[in-house]
Specification:
Layout (H helix, E strand, L loop, with lengths): L22 H16 L36 H11 L5 E4 L8 E3 L4 E3 L7 E2 L4 H8 L10 E2 L5 E2 L1 H4 L2 H6 L3 E3 L30 E2 L13 E8 L27 E8 L9 E2 L8 E5 L1
Parallel strand pairs: 3-4
Antiparallel strand pairs: 1-12, 2-12, 3-7, 5-6, 5-7, 8-11, 9-10
Length: 284
């Protein structure tokens, strides 16, 4: 057995100078060598592995990118494929509290270059900065600030490149605590601009929000010192020509309405639907 299971090779027989070498001992050594060489990989790929190959935590270098479905993937290949899947401005939901490399969490903060004073200040933010600077985003949806935090505008700064070079910082779309919806103009719906913040958590109804209604109840009337003569008229179902005599003093009537109280205490009601809250991150 030429290999001992740990990769070490040893011959079975050793020889002493000036002594006769037996053919069986000599042949045994050569047989072991032949067996050992047969277990080795040839550089020209004449045969494949017969068991799993452990690299012992070492690298395999100078490997070409894969071309077949069962080929091993290189780092370059994986990086290229990931870049094709995710590009600047792509958003993904996550349970993570720290952004992946090349991403930034939505925190209602700002981004800019290394000296911008932004929440995320790094040279890697340039592409996302330019995306948020351009239409359909505007100053109202993604506000712009100087490096000192003073509000500024796209009109004052000019191009995205000029604003970035001036170390401005730009706000990412406000996302915290808000439901996400698709921008655009759905059939029968109001047009919504990308980056727009809309709606509120609770509302208090005002009179204009209520439907028209008539309170239910009764009116009780009492007449004091009636003073009229009703002749030749139909009154309370009596035929015409029947007269009723009253005293000649002035008629005084009072009415009292009683019914079920309507309305409430003007407590604000929530607009929140059952929700689950996650984090989101955007690709730089």
């Amino acid at each position: 057995m030429p290999f001992n299971g740990s990769g070490s090779f040893s011959v079975v027989n050793t020889f002493t100078p000036n002594t006769t070498i037996s053919s069986s001992a000599f042949n045994q050594n050569y047989t072991d060598i032949a067996t050992g060489l047969s277990d080795c990989l040839t550089r020209d790929g004449q045969a494949g592995m017969t068991a799993a190959l452990s690299m012992g935590s070492h690298l395999i270098n100078n490997v070409t990118d894969p071309s077949g479905a069962q080929d091993a993937a290189t780092k370059n290949y994986v990086d290229t494929q990931n870049a094709a899947v995710w590009s600047t401005g792509d958003v993904k939901l996550t349970l993570k509290t720290v952004a992946d490399a090349g991403w930034v969490l939505f925190t209602d903060g700002t981004i800019g270059d290394a000296t911008s004073g932004a929440t995320v200040a790094a040279a890697t933010t340039a592409a996302l900065f330019a995306l948020l600077y351009a239409a359909p985003f505007v100053d109202a949806t993604c506000p712009l600030f100087t490096s000192t935090g003073t509000p500024t505008t796209r009109g004052a700064q000019g191009t995205a490149a000029a604003a970035y070079a001036a170390h401005c910082r730009i706000s990412t779309p406000a996302m915290l605590g808000r439901a996400m919806a698709l921008a655009g103009s759905g059939s029968g719906l109001t047009a919504r601009t990308m980056g727009l913040v809309n709606g509120q958590e609770a509302n208090t109804l005002i009179t204009a929000n209520l439907p028209a209604y008539t309170p239910a109840g009764t009116v009780a009337v009492s007449v004091v010192n009636g003073a009229n003569l009703l002749n030749n008229s139909a009154v309370n179902g009596y035929p015409s020509g029947v007269g009723f005599a009253f005293s000649t003093t002035t008629v005084t009537a009072t009415a009292t309405f009683s019914g079920t109280p309507q309305g409430g205490t003007s407590t604000a009601f929530t607009n929140m639907q059952p929700s689950q809250f996650l984090n989101a991150m955007v690709k730089l």
